[in-house]
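New to this. Please check both lines:
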Amino acid sequence: LDTGFEPDIRKLEDLGLPPKEDRCTSMFSATFPTEVQQLAKHFLPNDYVFLAVGTLGGANEDITQCIEEVPQGQKKDRLFQLLEQ
């Protein structure tokens, strides 16, 4: 949710999404913090399926994480640069 997609999802809801019981919605997250769980409860039906692969709360040891700070207006361009590499 740090990337700011929650307001975009809520805006879609405001634009007239059908009720959660009348639509098929899938949500994917590499992590499942409390904020994402609350979002899932709001947008998914009560009988949604939660599927966990690997260890909950654990990091994959085979993945190296790199953090790069990018100004807000340059994020899309930087993403495309990284994808082209």
In short: Residues 1-54 form one domain. Residues 17 and 23 are 8 Å apart (CA to CA). The chain has a mean pLDDT of 84.
